[in-house]
């Protein structure tokens, strides 16, 4: 068994190395982007390019350079990132910067606690005593302060009742 295993391992190793030495496929990696977009960049460069509020302007600059046939080098990328980050960012700068809307009149609200009612059935303990307790109320989540959150609408918290039908069996 051992004599058969060694030649099998050598044969497998040789066949795998032979396949890799044939140079099958393309030798260079090529990435083709969509029309009018950034074509080839590393993940780190894409992260640097899209980091910040005015990322769309940086992407447009690099895309235009690549569409013009220029190769964007590391120094070009650093210059773009430095020049774009040093600009004053006002309300007109970023195209897609979400601006949070402040609360009109923030009032503190105390949220309701969640209480669970547990029914404990009568049981006999190890000493033979009969215990009849009933309900135990326990607080699952405590009350919390919330600021800037709208008050819960009482219409949506209405109690649901089953559909009432008239009794027609008379």
Automatic annotation (TrEMBL):
Keywords: Lipoprotein, Signal. Residues 1-18 form the signal peptide. It holds the Pfam family TraV. This is Type IV conjugative transfer system lipoprotein TraV.
């Amino acid at each position: 068994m051992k004599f058969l295993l060694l030649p099998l391992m050598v044969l497998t190793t040789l066949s795998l190395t032979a396949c890799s030495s044939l140079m099958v496929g393309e030798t260079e990696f090529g990435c083709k982007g969509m029309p009018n977009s950034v074509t080839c960049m590393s993940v780190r460069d894409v992260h640097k390019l899209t980091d910040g509020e005015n990322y769309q302007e940086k992407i447009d600059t690099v895309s235009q350079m690549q569409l013009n046939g220029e190769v964007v080098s590391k120094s070009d990328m650093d210059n773009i990132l430095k020049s774009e980050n040093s600009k004053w960012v006002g309300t007109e700068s970023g195209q897609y910067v979400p601006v949070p809307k402040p609360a009109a009149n923030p009032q503190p609200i105390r949220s309701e606690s969640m209480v669970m009612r547990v029914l404990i059935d009568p049981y006999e303990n190890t000493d033979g005593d009969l215990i009849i307790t009933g309900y135990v109320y326990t607080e699952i989540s405590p009350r919390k302060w919330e600021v800037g959150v709208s008050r819960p609408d009482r219409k949506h918290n209405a109690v649901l009742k089953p559909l009432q039908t008239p009794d027609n069996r008379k």
